[in-house]
């Protein structure tokens, strides 16, 4: 099954994309995606493959696909894992999928892999079964991708009108050295603001002086022009 999926992806590979993706995902020496490899398959095509195979593939086979050095193999595996989670009917199955996700999180090692999967699996599970401690633990890890998993997983909480973890994790990693965390923090604050603008404004008024400029700009992106201008000047 794994070889069949790899072949299906290989048939959809576009050489121009394979040349472009390594630059886009920063795979050079010392960059955040160092060593990642691409064959040049677009996300919509990967989703089609995932939709075709997710019912057929076992968790063990998914682990083999997720261990691949090829980025598209790992992302396609995650798309299939999401479908398995969303179609699962009981707690035990969902728990097994979450345990699998956490066991293999070292393979979920670029921003698109994290962002496409974590809130649909971890965020959903932790919210539905009151397992905030899983996300707390991830947010406390030194690994950049674990921290990003924690904050992006709160997307599910935001959709449900709950903002406590988003604010907690933003503050916990507000001074993280990498701009991928600054952007993620700002993005989730922006989503919080779309759901409840007063929550965002209250948070910014209290914390904007210590926020990286990137985080602040991302957070206020959907506010009207005058509000953005005032906040950037520290006027609330």
* Count of separate DSSP helical elements: 14
| Gap from first CA to last CA | 57 Å
Q: What overall form do the CA principal axes indicate?
A: globular
Number of domains: 2
| CATH fold-level label of the largest domain | Leucine-rich Repeat Variant
What is the H/E order? HHHHHHHHHHHHHH
CATH architecture of the largest domain: Alpha Horseshoe
- Characterize the biggest β-sheet: none
Nearest-integer average pLDDT = 97
Total beta strand runs = 0
Low-confidence stretches: none
CATH class of the largest domain: Mainly Alpha
Alpha-beta classification: mainly alpha
Note the beta-strand portion: under 5%
Rg from Cα = 19 Å
Helix content: 55-70%
InterPro entries: ARM-type_fold (IPR016024), DNA_alkylation (IPR014825)
Protein name: 3-methyladenine DNA glycosylase AlkD
């Amino acid at each position: 099954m794994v070889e069949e999926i790899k072949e299906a992806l290989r048939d959809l590979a576009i050489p121009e994309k394979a040349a472009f993706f390594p630059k886009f995902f920063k795979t050079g020496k010392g960059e955040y995606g160092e060593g990642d490899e691409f064959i040049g398959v677009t996300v919509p095509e990967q989703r089609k493959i995932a939709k075709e195979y997710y019912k057929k593939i076992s968790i063990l086979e998914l682990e083999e696909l997720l261990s691949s050095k090829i980025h598209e193999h790992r992302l396609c595996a995650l798309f299939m894992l999401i479908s398995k989670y969303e179609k699962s009917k009981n707690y035990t199955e969902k728990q097994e999928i979450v345990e699998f996700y956490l066991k293999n999180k070292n393979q979920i090692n670029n921003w698109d892999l994290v962002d496409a999967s974590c809130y649909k699996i971890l965020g959903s599970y932790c919210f539905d079964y009151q397992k905030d401690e899983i996300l707390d633990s991830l947010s406390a890890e030194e690994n950049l991708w674990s921290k990003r998993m924690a904050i992006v997983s709160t997307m599910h909480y935001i959709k449900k009108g709950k903002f406590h973890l988003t604010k907690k994790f933003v503050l916990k990693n507000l001074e993280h050295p990498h701009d991928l965390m600054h952007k993620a923090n700002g993005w989730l604050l922006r989503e919080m603001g779309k759901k409840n603008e007063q929550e965002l404004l209250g948070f910014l008024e209290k914390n904007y002086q210590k926020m990286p400029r990137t985080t602040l700009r991302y957070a206020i992106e959907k506010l009207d022009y005058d509000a953005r201008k005032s906040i950037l000047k520290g006027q609330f």
